[in-house]
């Protein structure tokens, strides 16, 4: 008789123990990226005397602001388990169109800005339609669009840098709210972009469709979601954010460059994935992207503030640390619930 009652009791205790363990694991998973950021902050705060100064912390925010705008659109794309390889070229052609219309053709603002952002959005739309309607993998369509954007940039610029830019672009990239010692406008633009992306993903039907499609395109389609439309809209959004990033980057550098910076693509994907957004789709969001951006910015800036580190080794160290952090965070994320959106 005792054994009859002991078996269910033992089974119940074991189940409760597993639930308690899984609950702790989920909490650790959620905080994995936060702990990575905290550890880096403590390390560089101790190793680099100037790291925690207000001026340097502002520098970190300014350095990651362009990536934050890129990362907003890329987060949407990765949540669908897709990829956009055209963002760097898209940003370059946007900046070049804006500068060319303002400087060479002498169009007043906002015509150059609208034309440039419209072109970037159109290129994203072309990528989306090509991938959705013709069933071409997004990495192929966006690679082709990247070549198109690069060709347009070369044709417009003739290989020359345009150093005269509009006051609008200069204000977005280098302006400050409240005068010389005020807050950088580029950080405000990045925060607004991230906040809009967060609310779209968190509180709109379209945001829910993005998560559903990324988790299982077949199941989303059977549930009545127009997955082709979702893909088109997501790549269009990524095109627009890439264009906006190109404009603010031009304003920060005070010039439009004829060549796309490939580092934008690598850094953007690295920062978004580093924060915990899955490459397999359906898991992640803007909060994870913000954490990933802060980790990436802290690492880059911290290494620059340690004079003992050879300048030629910084890229190597950055790559190693990012690889280890990505592996650790991916292992944690693999044990998380797939439908988590925070």
Describe the protein's architecture and organization.
With about 350 residues, the chain is mainly alpha-helical. The protein has a single domain, classed as ABC transporter involved in vitamin B12 uptake, BtuC (Orthogonal Bundle), CATH 1.10.3470. Helices cover about 75% and strands about 0% of the residues. The chain has 13 helices and two strands, in the order ααααααββααααααα. The longest helix is centred in the N-terminal third of the chain and has 46 residues.
Secondary structure layout plus pairing:
Elements lengths: L1 H46 L6 H26 L7 H18 L6 H23 L4 H20 L9 H8 L1 E2 L5 E2 H19 L1 H11 L1 H6 L4 H27 L8 H13 L11 H19 L9 H21 L8
Antiparallel strand pairs: 1-2
Which short descriptors sum up this protein?
mainly alpha; 2 strands; single chain; ABC transporter involved in vitamin B12 uptake, BtuC; two-stranded antiparallel ribbon; globular; 1% strand; 342 residues; disordered N terminus
């Amino acid at each position: 008789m005792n054994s009859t009652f002991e078996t269910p009791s033992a089974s119940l205790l074991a189940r409760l123990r597993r639930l308690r363990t899984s609950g702790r694991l989920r909490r650790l998973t959620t905080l994995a990226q936060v702990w990575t950021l905290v550890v880096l902050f403590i390390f560089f705060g101790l190793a680099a005397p100037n790291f925690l100064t207000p001026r340097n912390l502002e520098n970190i925010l300014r350095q990651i602001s362009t990536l934050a705008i890129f990362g907003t659109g890329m987060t949407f794309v990765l949540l669908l388990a897709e990829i956009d390889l055209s963002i760097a070229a898209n940003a370059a052609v946007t900046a070049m169109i804006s500068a060319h219309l303002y400087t060479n053709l002498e169009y007043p603002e906002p015509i150059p800005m609208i034309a440039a952002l419209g072109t970037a959005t159109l290129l994203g739309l072309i990528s989306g339609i090509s991938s959705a309607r013709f069933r071409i993998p997004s990495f192929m369509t966006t690679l082709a669009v990247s070549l198109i954007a690069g060709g347009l940039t070369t044709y417009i610029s003739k290989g020359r840098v345009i150093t005269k830019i509009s006051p609008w672009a200069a204000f977005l990239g280098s302006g400050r709210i409240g005068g010389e010692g005020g807050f950088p406008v580029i950080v405000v633009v990045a925060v607004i972009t991230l906040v809009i992306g967060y609310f779209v993903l968190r509180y709109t039907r379209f945001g829910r469709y993005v998560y559903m499609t990324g988790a299982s395109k077949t199941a989303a389609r059977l549930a009545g979601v127009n997955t082709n439309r979702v893909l088109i809209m997501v790549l269009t959004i990524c095109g627009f954010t890439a264009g906006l990033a190109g404009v603010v980057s031009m304003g920060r550098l005070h010039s439009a460059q004829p060549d796309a910076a490939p580092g934008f693509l690598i850094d953007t994907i690295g920062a978004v994935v580093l924060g915990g957004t899955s490459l397999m789709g359906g898991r992640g969001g803007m909060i994870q992207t913000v954490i990933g951006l802060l980790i990436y910015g802290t690492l880059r800036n911290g290494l620059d503030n340690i004079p003992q580190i050879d300048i030629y080794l910084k890229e190597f160290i950055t790559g190693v640390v990012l690889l280890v952090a990505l592996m650790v965070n991916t292992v944690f994320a693999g044990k998380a619930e797939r439908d988590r959106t925070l």
